[in-house]
Amino acid sequence: MFMSWTQRPSRSFANAYFGQSNDKVTKKYNIKDFKSKRTDRRPNKVKERSEFSAEKLSTYQLYTLGGNHLRTAMQNLAKEAYLDEIRNVQIHLYFGLNEQEAMTVSNSHNGTQAYLKPTFQDTVYQALKLKEANKTSSLPASVAQMLSEIEMKEVAKESVGTIVSVANYGQVNMKLYNLLVTKFQQKNGSFKSIPQNTSRFSECTICSLIKKSLSETKDKQVRSGLLEQRNKHLWQQRSERQKYYKHQMKSKREPSKYISIIMDAMDQNKTMIPHFNKPPKSTDGMWKLKTHLLAAKVHGVGIYGFFDIFQWAHGSNLTITALFNILNIMKDSLPEVLYLQMDNCGRENKNRYVIAFLCLLVELGIFRKVKLSFLMKGHTHEDIDQLFSRFIKNVLGQWIT
């Protein structure tokens, strides 16, 4: 059931039409009745269909689900001029809607209008509302339905993983997300969406092959199998990443018991010397000295960097030497458990020499336990890479010779 109501904002009367099936009953109401403060005019709530009465329309409190901009614009125009040709607006009046049904109505309304595409922030906000309203139902399915209504096309629940992941953030991560949104909107405006695919790194081979296969087939059964395979793959890498985050938190909360270190090398093409913020023409084809940076981030303690100009081979010896120097600096405050995170490079990290050195640390009693971890290939980029990004951004504006 809905109400079609022709509104005259600045006139003394409003015509209301009560519609059920094909029957229409015309009623007249004084517009002042909607603003009355009399006790018998206070807003009533309608919970059941049988409770609604067109005679009591002026006593109901109305909430606008869509068309706010049009209503505001018309009210402002009505104050400035007498414009009969634009005063009549047809609306649909609903009652007894729960929060998700109200969201469906508003999204359907937006789909019939010329409107800006919802930003990533908007979809996350609506996903949070769905999560609060439907605690027992599947959030991915609810978000997919919501996006289908907004975009006027079918959206698979397997494609809304990023939105659902953000909506499921804990209190601490949600505060960080809100801070990110605030800073992004201050810089770019509230109508620009936060980009979700900004990585400059190469994509995981498995992810790339599954995406390619999905784009080449429309068979529902095949697509379902591919999506299930992709979800298992992403669940596995997400689980391993969460383990790394857990090690970080343990080292920060109990530094007397745990230490967490991540080590990685920076792209050497960005650290060649000389470096110019705006290279002169005379430097075209100039020979440059290759410079290598191996960095380690000790969570809750500090950052350590080791530069070389390729005077040594880049292998397990270099990795072990850097790790030994870090532990030597911290020798007076080493805890009993070491968590070490590295990438999958077999030459430098994932080899018997590095593992033998870590076993020696336990054998000598320096640590009671050492845990060496590697994220899945293609999903290894972490906070250490953000450190490199900040470093190179600072270097880009300088001349280094």
TrEMBL record:
> Per UniProt, what is one Pfam family of this protein?
DUF7869
Superkingdom is: Eukaryota
Which InterPro entries does the annotation name? DUF7869
Domain DUF7869 stretches: 281-394
| Record's protein name | DUF7869 domain-containing protein
